[in-house]
Amino acid sequence: IVKLRDKIMSNMDKVPPGVTDPMIKPMAVDDVPMLTLTLWSQDLNDSELRVLSLDVLQRLKEVPDTSQGFVVGGRSEQIRVEVMPERLSGFRIGLDQIAQTIQTANAEQGVGNVESGDLGFKVYTGAFLRNAQDIRRLVVGTHQGVPVYVGDVARVIAGPEETKQIVQYYTGPAADEKGPKADGAAAVTIAVAKKKGANGVTVAKDILSKVEELKGRLIPTNVHVSVTRNYGETANEKVNELLFKLCVATLAVTLLVWYSLGFRPAMVTLIVIPVVIVMTVFAAWIMKYTIDRVSLFALIFSIGILVDDAIVVVENIYRRWLLEDTCCSVISVDAVREVGNPTILATFTVIAALLPMGFVRGMMGPYMEPIPALGSVAMLFSLLAAFIFTPWLTQLIKPSLRTLHIHSEKEHAQTQRLERFYRTVIPALVDSKIKGYGFLLGMVAIFFLCMAMFYTQDVAVKIMPLDNKPEFNVVVNMAEGTALPKTANLIQRMTELLRKEVPEVIAMQTYAGTASPFNFNGMVRHYYLRREPWQGDIQVQLKHKSERERTSHQLATIARHLLTPLADAAGAHIEVVEMPPGPPVLQSVVAEVTGPDATTRRTVAARMTEFFKKSRYIVDANNYMQAPFEIWRFEVDTEKAVRRGVSVDAINRNLSMAMGGARLGDVKRARVLEPTYIMIQIP
After folding, report:
1. Which of 110, 187, 331, 596 is disulfide-compatible with 40, CB 3.0–4.6 A?
2. Residue 343 and residue 488: Cα distance in Å, rounded?
């Protein structure tokens, strides 16, 4: 960020006059909300819910390890000064005069210090405006010797701002039958992120416990709180699932060693694996890695190879005991020496194969980094365990020589069976050229037949398999210039269709003119910047995967088929967005167009978009170009303005105030967490 700011500031001399300074805000994965709570009510409006949600968010930030939080939806409180033009004309007062009066009256500053006797005092002048009544009483001028107040020429209204975004809550067919029902209830969503390195499971539980404490005290009974995102719960489920797979993998390796070498070597393996894993987890803590799904995957991935060193050492110790016909520790040490160098070489060969993954750039780099890091650490610890811990443990639970001879004879019998098969097949292929070349041609043919499956698409190619997630989003883009009510109406019709046709839906939240709290995917795609009235999305919550037969991907595909005709009829474009199993990207297929001028780039990009839409394997094809839409332009006749003594800047400034685009400051209200701005406009 510092380098970026330095680069921009060093080129500020190239910025044209009138261009405001750029705003730079860092956005990282730790800024993604891990818990969202939707407050909805049939009795309160969205403005009242927003005030309540800000108070709730303030209390939730008291929970340890919580980070940034924000509120989506609801109208902010403001004070509107609605000027009546006919009264302005009658009193010969202009908009500039009213604005300047309000701004100068809403100021307080220190002007110095005075001493009186033994005491010293700070002197302040001015006062802040506290409410609408203070604004009404301001004297804006005089007319025929009588003071003219703001209330004489304008209506001063304290209340919610005009609707710029609409957030609603719907319950689905899979909702709890005994719970409250909602059909487009007014709603706001609270989003809370956790601090970097904090335990998301613990933070989520603490936040939900805090919410239960606030119910009935801060949160009234006619306001319902629905948990619409809980990454702490999903992370806990995934971690428990991976821990179970970790145990299954350990058990599978142990059983394989038991079958191959016997019970005691299997016990050595069963003890070595947890020891190495614990040492690896300790190293992860030192290296500032958290135990998450990727790091657990690294441990599971390593189980099959981290026992190789121990197995090699145990096998050679047993072999030497059989040769020497004694189980003494001196022979064990010499057996470890024999296989020491090749074991070290094999271990570092595996590490060399893992390390290149740590140098992958882009989003995949930091996402997959724990795999080579922890995998390499696990291999090093397995090498140490094989040379230090395994010989001692093998000596401690050593089998009898009789048991070793029994397993040796069993292994010899298995080897003889494999040798008989080998001696039956290989000589026939070597002695007969027809059979030999036929076998080679058959292998080549099978290889090309397998490769042809990719071309014929009999086998689908995927980098990572889709997970069965509890949610998906429908991103809606109306034609540029569409009014907010029309966008909200289309989203409502889509919501009703999903409630009717998808029985697995628990609840839905609709966002028009704004975006739902962004996730990891939305952070990369910049969904948090979607604030236009023709933009919106639907967040769909599904039943738990254990309670439904269809996967989230199947349901998302069904939703796309249901909603696409509705969107096409309204001239809209939709994208059904699922949570990716790996690092998010802008889209599965992205084409970047460069060219000499804007017209050429737009033409080529439009053709590329149509080309993508015609492909049967690509859905939701779109581009980042903003289509031209109708605008109104107020053109100033500069010649007439100069003759009447009016500057163009004054005209632009007054027009901005008349359209409601000017803030005159804010009133200082107690116990309010959001500024209450003073807006001036002509109704």
Report:
1. 187
2. 66
Fold of 13-76+163-234+465-586: Alpha-Beta Plaits (3.30.70)
Nearest partner of 404 among 293, 314, 341, 330, judged by Cα? 314
Task: Point out which residues pair with 113 in neighbouring strands.
Answer: 122
Name the phi and psi angles at 350, rounded to 5: -65, -40
For the purposes of burial, counting CB atoms within 10 Å of the CB of 300, is it exposed (0-12), middle (13-18) or buried (19 or more)? middle
**How would you classify the pairing of strands 119-127 and 107-116?**
antiparallel
Burial of 113 (0-12, 13-18, 19+ CB in 10 A): exposed
Helix (H) or strand (E) holding 108: strand 107-116
Q: Tens of pLDDT along 120-179?
A: 899 988 889 999 999 999 999 888 888 999 999 999 999 999 999 999 999 999 998 888
Tell me the pLDDT tens digit for each residue of 427-437: 888 888 888 89
Could you tell me which CATH class the domain 263-398 is placed in?
A: mainly alpha
Residue listed under structure tokens 């993508």: 612
CATH topology of domain 77-111+120-160+634-681: 3.30.2090
As a whole number of angstroms, the distance between CA 105 and CA 133 comes to 13
| Residues 154, 106: Cα–Cα separation, whole Å | 18
Q: What does the pLDDT look like over 253-300, one tens digit per residue? A: 888 878 777 787 788 888 888 888 888 888 888 888 877 777 777 777
The DSSP string of 129-195 is --SHHHHHT-EEEEETTEEEEHHHHEEEEEEEPPP--EEEEEE-TTS-TTS---EEEEEEEEEEEE-
